[in-house]
Design brief:
Length: 307
């Protein structure tokens, strides 16, 4: 039972990694924010990052979804960075523990602790594609750690093709955890593998008997998918509960080459969230992705409340 499924609005954070790197000058190996959990200074930096979002949720009378800083904390990426499996498991557990501390301190702000999962490959352009079976095997390890640590749910973000998403959904089911899937799209509204958002969600639904809690779109500007939102079938439209958009209108390829942060226009981004609400009426989870920070999520929450 997830409270964001009951119709109440839940905020999430912005672009954690881009905010830490570009706005706070913190080095993250391989874009891995979980590496900060290895010492007290890093944990303090993460705490300072999340706390203003929780206060914003309090101000708006909304809930907050704490996404663990573990988008890169899966076996392949842990090995690249130099983590043993035991150290990687400890990092995932520490991420959940931080969320539990923040929830205990938040008082009356409803907080959902979500174990955040990233793709096995590149989040913009995967070099290899896993089968659903291989993806289930791969992601079961991290999901198992999350289950033991006591998360409320898991959320796979920046999924670039449905097979990996299907594997995540099945792995979460094996651990008896609710799961949401956030697909990313290119500037034409299609996934990096060429499938439409409609096709990707429908394929994941059919392969898993509709067992995901809900779907999201992340790591793309609203101008990349607002034109396709109105063409979604009712069955797919009704299953999309969240948006975590990029600040920039640039393509993934352009962002990959960028050396400076493009933080876009927070107010324009907020207005686009409100506009897309007509085509996605079940939206209850609002946050940001690359290039966004507290300013963007604040603007989104204000525009949403006003609407």
């Amino acid at each position: 039972m997830l409270p964001q499924l009951d119709g109440d609005t839940f905020l999430s954070d912005g672009g954690l990694e881009t905010d830490l790197i570009f706005n706070h000058g913190i080095d993250l190996p391989e874009f891995a924010s979980f590496d900060l959990l290895k010492d007290a200074e890093g944990v303090a930096a993460l705490r300072s990052y999340y706390e203003p979002y929780i206060e914003l949720a309090r101000e708006r009378g909304m809930g907050f979804i704490y996404e663990t800083p573990t988008w890169r904390a899966s076996p392949r990426w842990g090995e690249v960075i130099g983590y043993s499996l035991s150290d990687l498991a400890a990092a995932n557990r520490a991420a959940v523990a931080l969320g539990e501390e923040l929830r205990a301190e938040a008082g009356d702000v409803p907080i959902v602790i979500s174990g955040n999962i990233g793709p096995e490959g590149d989040g913009y352009s995967p070099e290899t594609l896993m089968s659903a079976e291989k993806a289930q095997e791969y992601h079961s390890w991290q999901i198992g750690v999350f289950a033991d640590a006591g998360v409320d749910m898991v959320n796979a973000m920046t999924m670039t093709y449905p097979d990996e998403a299907i594997g995540v959904i099945r792995a979460a089911g094996g651990a008896s955890l609710p799961v949401s899937i956030a697909f990313t799209v290119e500037t034409d509204g299609h996934l990096p593998n060429g499938l439409s958002l409609e096709e990707a969600i429908a394929e994941a639904e059919q392969a898993t008997d509709g067992s995901a809690a809900y779907f999201m779109v992340n790591c793309a500007h609203p101008t990349h998918f607002d034109s396709v939102a109105g063409d979604l079938s009712d069955s797919v439209r009704d299953r999309i509960r969240g948006i975590r958009a990029n600040a920039s209108t640039r393509s993934h390829a352009e962002l990959d080459e960028a050396t400076e942060l493009d933080d876009g226009d927070p107010q324009d981004l907020a207005e686009r969230y409100v506009s897309i609400r007509e085509d996605l009426p079940n939206l209850t989870v609002l946050g940001g992705c690359c290039g966004t920070d507290l300013r963007h999520v604040r603007a989104i929450s204000e525009a949403w409340a006003a609407a």
